[in-house]
Amino acid sequence: MEPVALITGITGQDGQYLARLLLEKGYHVHGFTQAATNFPHEQVFLHRVDLKVTENLHDLLKQIQPCEVYHMAAQSHVPLSYQQPLETAEITGMGALRMLEAVRQYEIECSRQVRFFQASSSAILDDQAGPVLNEQSPIHPRSPYACAKAYAHLQVQNYREAHGMFACNGILFNHESPLRDESFVTRKITRAATRIKLGLQQKLILGNLDAERSWGYAGDFVQAMWLMLQLDEPDDFVISTTKTHSVREFVDVVFQCLDLDYQQYVEIDPEFFRPHDAPVLCGDITRAQTQLGWQPQVSFTELAHQMTQHDLELAEIESRTNHSG
Ligand SMILES: Nc1nc2c(ncn2[C@@H]2O[C@H](COP(=O)(O)OP(=O)(O)O[C@H]3O[C@H](CO)[C@@H](O)[C@H](O)[C@@H]3O)[C@@H](O)[C@H]2O)c(=O)[nH]1
Q1: Which residues line ligand 1 (CB under 6 A)?
Q2: CA–CA separation, 78 and 174 (whole Å)
Q3: Quick one: pLDDT at residue 38?
Q4: Which of 58, 229, 276, 289 could disulfide-link to 102, CB 3.0 to 4.6 Å?
Q5: Is the pLDDT of residue 251 over 80?
Q6: Rounded to two decimals, what is the model's pTM?
Q7: Selection from 274, 235, 243 nearest residue 117 by Cα
Q8: Domain NAD(P)-binding spans what residues (predicted)?
Q9: What separation in Å is there between the alpha carbon of 79 and the centre of ligand 1?
Q10: Atom 12 (ligand 1): residue with closest C-alpha?
């Protein structure tokens, strides 16, 4: 019998890469989302479930009987969380608790064990605690989003310790791809630069260009998620690359790839600055390397080029459509 996995938030970048990976590994993949449209994998069974109702989640678990649950669903955009702190807490914080509780009830009622993965975030860690953060770094969230993720992270640890649940936090540092939503900075940059190249857009308006992040590739990160749930014992893992680059460097690489000088096109608007923005975020992946045998494969430059190439093709389609229309 094929193993059965449930991915929440399956239409996001991580959900899509993870679905692809699990299908390759021979899983039956179920996913849920509140906006189930046009999901590219026909083999994935899609469900529309309200993350705000524990009974719905419990009923879905009984119906599909997963052995692994990957909890990705969240409001994961930091600036939006300042405008919608309650909704963010509800979806990102309480949503994870409802999922854990539904799994616990299902395990008791059906005498089964489920392995649970939580997409935790580097944003929960104290970015003032040092240049490189690990699993022992203090938790000090500094945005409504980070507070909600910290709550979910602690509940995962609590369910593991109090109920013996097989539950792992992947403390994910920034990870990007051509499937990244355009509200995040890397995709905003590659979409805009490629549209500028083809004359479809004049300017790119950004905020803080000096923030340094360890930009990883989402396709690499989902490997680590799967590896965590194959361990003998559950644990928490930092997943990151080991090199940081500023937003400015990302802009520069992308525009150079298109033979453009970014300084002619990029403008700064204070609207995109945040009340708090970690100056540097980088993870120590010693635990992931030693216990999971995991290593990031795609470099910063390869990632920027891959995203630029993808978005150049999109811009070319847009350009052709404009001319034929
Ligand atoms: N979104 C955005 N960010 C900008 C902009 N200009 C500069 N930035 C800077 O670019 C950096 C990255 O911003 P995002 O791409 O929005 O990501 P994030 O806030 O770091 O959060 C992402 O990574 C976390 C893990 O480290 C995730 O937890 C979170 O959900 C998200 O994926 C931040 O320092 C932000 O201030 C802009 O126009 N838009």
Answers
A1: 76, 78, 121-123, 172-174, 183-185, 188, 206-208, 211, 213, 247, 272, 274, 277, 281
A2: 12
A3: 64
A4: 58
A5: yes
A6: 0.97
A7: 235
A8: 6-307
A9: 8
A10: 185
Between the CA of 57 and the centroid of ligand 1 the distance, in Å, is: 30
Residue nearest to atom 2 of ligand 1 (CA): 185
Report the pLDDT value the prediction gives residue 174, as an integer from 0 to 100.
98
What pLDDT does residue 49 have?
A: 83
Report the chain's mean pLDDT, rounded to a whole number.
95
Burial 232-257 (b: 16+ CB within 10 A, else e): eebebbbbbbeebbbbbbbbbbbbeb
Q: Residue 217 above 80 pLDDT?
A: yes
Q: Identify the band that residue 42 occupies on the pLDDT scale cut at 50, 70 and 90.
A: confident
- CA-closest residue to ligand 1 atom 19: 78
Q: Where are the domains of the chain?
A: 4-176+215-239, 185-212+243-281+299-324
Q: Which fold has domain 185-212+243-281+299-324?
A: UDP-galactose 4-epimerase; domain 1 (3.90.25)
pLDDT digits (tens, 9 = 90+) for 157-207: 999 999 999 999 999 999 999 999 999 999 999 999 999 999 999 999 999
What residues contact 4, with CB distance under 8 A and at least 6 apart?
27, 28, 30, 64, 65, 66, 67, 68
Give start and end residues of each alpha helix (H) in 121-204.
144-163, 185-197
Distance 138 CA to ligand 1 centre (A): 21
Tokens (6 digits) for 1: 């019998």
User: What pLDDT score was predicted for residue 175?
Assistant: 98
On the question of pLDDT at 287 being above 60, the answer is yes
Candidate from 185, 267, 277 with most ligand 1 atoms within 8 A of CB, to mutate: 185
**CA-to-CA distance for 230 and 21, rounded, in angstroms?**
14
Name the helix (H) or strand (E) containing 231. Answer: none
